[in-house]
Amino acid sequence: MDFFDFPTSSVFASQKIFCWVKRLSISRPSVNNRCSTAAFAADKICWCVDEKLILDSLTFEIKSQEFVGLIGPNGAGKSSLLRCLYGLNKITSGTLNFNGKNSDSYSRREMAQKIAVLVQEPPTHFDMNVSDVVAMGLIPHQPLLAFSTEEDKVSVENAINMVELKDKQNSAFNTLSGGEKQRVMVARAIVQKPQVLILDEPTNHLDIQHQIEILQLVKQMNVTVVLSIHDLNIAAAFCDRLILMNKGSIVADGNCEEVLTRKNLKNIFQIEAEIDQHPYHSGQRITYDLTGGKENEI
Amino acid sequence: MKRIFFTLAILIFIVSNKLSAENSLSKITNAQRIIALAPHSVELLYAIGAGDRIIATTEYSDYPKEALGIPRIGNANGIQIERVVEEKPDLVIVWEGGNKSADVLKLKSLGLNLFFTKPLKISDISQELKELGNLTGLSERADQVIEQMEKKHKQITNKYKRGSKVKTFYQLWHDPLTTIGPASWSESLLNDCNAENIFKDALSPYPVVPIESVLVKNPQVIIIPSHSGDDETKSKIWEKWSEISAVKNNHVNIIDGDLLHRFTPRVLDGLQKLCDAIDKAR
Amino acid sequence: MKSKFFFIAIVSVTILGISFLFAMVMGSVELSFGQVYNTLFICSMDQNTGVQNIVAQNSCTVDPIYRKIIWEIRLPRILMAFLTGVGLSIAGAILQSVTRNPLADPYLFGISSGAALGAVLAISVFSTGIISVTFGALAGGIFSVILMLTLAGRAALQVERLLLSGVAVSFMLGAFTSLIIYYSDPEIASTLLFWMMGSFTNSQWGDLWLPALCISIGLMLFLIYRSWIGAIQAGDEGAFTLGIPVSQLRLIMLIICSIITAVLVAQVGGIGFVGLMIPHISRFLVGSKLSKVLFMCVVIGGSFMLWVDVIAHSLIPNQVLPVGIVTAAIGSLFFFVILKSRGRNL
What we know:
The complex is a heterotrimer. Chain A has helices at 6-24, 78-86, 108-114, 130-135, 150-162, 178-191, 208-220, 232-238, 256-259, 262-269; strands at 38-49, 52-63, 67-71, 93-98, 101-102, 115-118, 196-200, 224-228, 241-246, 249-255, 272-277, 284-289. Chain A is of the alpha/beta class. A 6-stranded mixed beta sheet of chain A has the order 6-7-8-3-9-10, sandwiched between helices. A 4-stranded antiparallel beta sheet of chain A has the order 2-1-4-5. A two-stranded antiparallel sheet of chain A has the order 11-12. In chain A, helix 6 (178-191) runs parallel beside helix 7 (208-220). The radius of gyration of chain A is 21 Å and the shape is globular. Chain B has a 4-stranded parallel beta sheet, sandwiched between helices. A 4-stranded parallel beta sheet of chain B has the order 10-7-11-12. In chain B, helix 6 (139-161) packs parallel to helix 12 (267-280). Chain B is globular and about 60 Å long. Chain B starts with a helix and ends with a helix. Helix content of chain C is 73%, strand content 0%. Classes of the chains: A alpha/beta, B alpha/beta, C mainly alpha. Chains in contact: A-C, B-C.
């Protein structure tokens, strides 16, 4: 932080003031009738941490059963936004509604019963066996003193079958490959029987086969999905809608054609690309131009 | 061949060192500036009339009363070696086992005239008195004290020689339950009273023993030497164990520890008390 | 898989039973199995007067002194050893799960240093005996936990900060303790040093109820929350998304483990390595599922401590070794073995 750099320091200072003001202002509940079918409805939400403004006045809606992709460069605030959605971050100001009610009015347990989350990297030194890990998904629905019922066991088995890990059921979690680990986490999410599935860059460390495999599994689950992803082609293939973020704000919000434009790619990601219809599915195909843009001047 | 030569060289080195040490002490006949690093040595020096020659001592040198005025330069945890050197003593009395061993080594290396005290039985006190008499030029007085002591000592031991040995438990401390092992000073006192230390076969000088063993060995007398503080707690631990002969017959005795543990002529008073207590149980 | 667990469980429980038997028989005074059996089941003794039940008089052939040894000395000591092994092991297992740190140990948080300081103050400063060693140690242990939480402040909710705070408290209180011992009478110093190294020697029947109560309640709570604690092993964020209040759970578990440890240390002094080793051994045998691990910790931890007590009383004839020395020796061997085996796996 360079104190002699006026422009930056003034932004910094103004952020600080902004955060203070937002924290002190009383947010009124949003009166938004069309939100009754929306899974999430966000109205000007901000999130500050250590007096730094990370998310700036975001407004968007995610409808039930939509498959929404969150894209944007590193540091855009995608993970932060996801954490606001499932409650790990408390928003500084603005309103966030989940299923029509303010997010704050849900207890953590109620949120867990409705929202399942897949994080970037599952723990590595974890040596419980696979079926125990998958069984963790039952926790939000089970009272503490309960023992596993037949129904629970069946649910766990089905989930393991769905991700095709039946033969590894009793292996230790940390003996699995990266792709298998993520499949276990998907199985756990399945057992959790959520309405919403949030995924924070789940395919980062996977090879292409496993990346597609995981997302196909997720698509099969038929729930509302909010997915943060880097690979734009895969995003185009799977997502109904895209939200493009940059520097803490939403730059574009709409279906794939609207968001994935050459202009957006150039401005936000600083890349040149050719966008056309994908030959195998109904989405777009993005071809990156690595020659420096000389070939494709409009 | 080389090995024999090497061993021989080392032997010669050791012997010559020992000889030189003894030689250096034998040269002293009239030590005037004495540093006594043990309370009992202070008492002995006063007994032979050399008390005013003590220029420094350690804590707890409290007998006779005049000794309280002698400057202190240390305790069991450490001696101020620099002050020892500064005082330029003719003689330093060192207590092996009572002074910190690192200090003892340091003093040895400094080339001072050291007299080592480590009495293990009452007759050793006579021996030390004699040597101190020689070192201070007060042999006559020393001999007088020795004579008195030995007479009294013989009186006491003869009185209790008859009869059977009394099985005794000597409780040094109650928590943990510590007693005395073989060949220790306290055991020699017990032997003088015609008593038997029930832990005379122990493997260390101050063994920590389980109460079970005391129960099974069933001593006739329990002796608790006390220096200060809570005598009640020390004897209270025996209240529940009325199976022990000593407890049943009320032979649990608390005796002044200073009298028993100081290697001076006063120990005879303590010995008297000790033997009386033991004799009651015979 | 289930049958493997049952097999291991049965073997361990058998070993526990055998350990109890041997602990009763071995020690500074060798007793026979017959004497032990007679004392426990045939002779009945009126504790106050030592007079035996007239009805059983004919069949009771055991000397009153041996009977007293068994009832008043051996049995309470063995039960205290068992409770200590169980308590320290389950506290260690839960701490390791909840901090995701395989080196977590009940002593990590400075509890034993606090208890030692409390004991030292009770003996040397308040030497008129107003405050008993046990009470002082308990107060000291609890004080050290409060100090640790206060020092960590808001960062107490983060594991690493909490561990650091605990280590800092441990060193600080240890320094004070050493200072007081240095200036104490040699006799008091020897009492304190022996206490700090751990011993079951002075255990009475009346000392058992508090540790037993705390351990039972603690174990019950651990079992109730076992699924939550297990989920924390999968990462804080993952546990949060399952609806678990991670920081609060961690704090509560920490406090429970601290109370168990403080109560035990207050009675028996400083005994290390048990809380570190036994959970590792348990996990090695039955895997990471918490209910199984806790069961094995109870059985193996209890047996282990019984044997340690036997060793402390039998190694040198007619003498008692501090228990902490025995566990430290075994602990170092244990780590050496682990080091060697890890090296081979590379």
